[in-house]
Specification:
7 strands; alpha/beta; globular; 2 domains; seven-stranded mixed sheet; binds magnesium ion; Rossmann fold
Length: 307
């Protein structure tokens, strides 16, 4: 009998523990669901890196200078009244073939490992993630680039991104690039904002992206987006993000006067809310601006929850 009571006590204690655990788990889930997501969306070349991604290994491998490569590529586009993006993809494939370089995914990834990054970029992501965490906000980072996805995947910061939207090739059975699969020009960049908002992690999808989703059902509403860009191809995206209540930041290489003038022009024209030098260190204006935006997003979100 004594032994039986003993078992009852253990059983009751275990039940109590399980219920308590389930209750805690439920609360965790609720807070997790309640945590707003803030998306930081970056262009790559000129925004996170001071050059074009082909200039840190690929162009050298085909024995050209960056100027020679881009003059040929832009010349092809202008001469054929073609897309600059499709032209550079063709030029990369043709020139690699002439130099006996194979263009497999792993080769392209190798050309990404020496990409130069602006000051503070490597530490930036964990810095912002930590700040978001301290404010009860989940941070996600995305790439929206006209460069090559495979090269970005080989870069030292690739694992920081929830998804990389960029150009990529179609590969044959031997794994060789044979044809452009995704070409991202300035208008294509805007469709990826809609995908990010609806939580679609596929460049190929053309159905879910056009389905109507109420603003409060969007995984990441536009006011929770922060878009970073440096060039002409970012203007429609900056405009779309700003138009829907999000935040756009023009980033410029402080060593190039022309880049600074361009960013300030975007600011004057109201296409972006901020223009900052491409410096991502903790003491930078970029971090200051992003922290202030996160604070604002969280305050607006909390106010909305009370309404
Ligand atoms: Mg750029």
């Amino acid at each position: 009998m004594k032994l039986q009571i003993h078992y009852y006590v253990i059983f009751a204690a275990e039940c109590h523990y399980s219920v308590k655990k389930a209750y805690m788990w439920r609360n965790d889930l609720l807070t997790m669901r309640k945590k707003p997501i803030v998306a930081l969306i970056y262009d790559f070349d000129g925004t996170l890196s001071p050059g074009n991604m082909q200039e840190f290994g690929f162009i050298q491998a085909i024995g050209k200078t960056p100027q020679e490569f881009w003059t040929m590529s832009d010349g092809l586009a202008a001469g054929q009244d073609a897309s600059n993006v499709l032209s550079y993809m063709k030029m990369m494939k043709d020139e690699a073939g002439k130099s006996g370089i194979s263009l497999r995914k792993e080769d392209l990834r190798r050309f990404g490992k020496d990409i130069e990054l602006f000051e503070g970029v490597r530490e930036w992501f964990s810095l912002v993630n930590e700040y978001g965490k301290s404010k009860g906000v989940k941070i996600e980072h995305y790439i929206n680039s006209s460069g090559l996805k495979e090269i970005i995947e080989g870069s030292p910061i690739a694992s920081e991104f929830k998804y990389i939207f960029a150009c990529s090739y179609i590969y044959n059975e031997e794994g060789e690039a044979v044809w452009p699969g995704i070409a991202v020009d300035f208008t294509a960049k805007t469709q990826f904002l809609f995908k990010i908002s609806k939580g679609i992690f596929s460049a190929h999808d053309n159905k879910k992206v056009n389905e109507s989703v109420a603003d409060d059902k969007k995984r990441i509403p536009y006011p929770h987006m922060i878009y970073f860009g440096d060039g002409e191809t970012d203007i429609p995206s900056m405009k779309v993000v700003s138009m829907f209540g999000g935040n756009s930041i023009a980033v410029y290489n402080p060593k190039i006067q022309k880049k600074k003038a361009f960013a300030l022009k975007l600011l004057r024209q109201g296409r972006v809310g901020f223009a900052v030098p491409a410096d991502y260190r903790e003491e930078s204006k970029t971090f200051q601006v992003v922290c202030a935006i996160i604070d604002k997003i969280k305050a607006d979100y909390d106010l909305h929850q009370l309404g």
